Each structure stands twice: as C-alpha cells, then as structure tokens.
Amino acid sequence: MTTITAGEAARHGFVTPATRFDRTLLRAAAAIDAFVLARVERRVGAERRRALTAQAAASGARREAEALAAIGILPR
Hints:
By secondary structure, the protein is an all-alpha fold. The protein contains 3 helices and no strands. The radius of gyration is 19 Å and the shape is flat. The relative contact order is 0.06.
C-alpha cells in the first residue's frame, strides 16, 4: 500500500525523500507479505499447486514465444 501511494505522489510531482523509518516500514511490510504468502501456499493442496505451476510454465512459454515473434523470430 505504501509503495502505491508513494508512486502516485511521485507521478504528481511530489518529491519526498525516503527516511530510514520509511525503508524500515517497507521492509517490515515485505516480510509480512512473504509470511502470509508462505502460509497461504502451505494451505493450498498439492493438486492446486501443480495446476498453478503448470499454468505459470505455460504463461512463461507464451510470453517467450510472443517476445521472439515481436523481433521476427518464429519459434519452431
């Protein structure tokens, strides 16, 4: 939430330096996000994890193929 607000303020021309306290809060928020993500991933069943992994792999392959096509290289 803090980074979204900071980005929004920067877009409107407000320049505020990040203090040590601000950086500490952002690190704490990132750590909490990582903790919550780990807990949610543990709750998800193995079948769902496999499906998400396959979906991510397919999405990555598609992005790579689109990037190659954008520069004129067709995948074989």
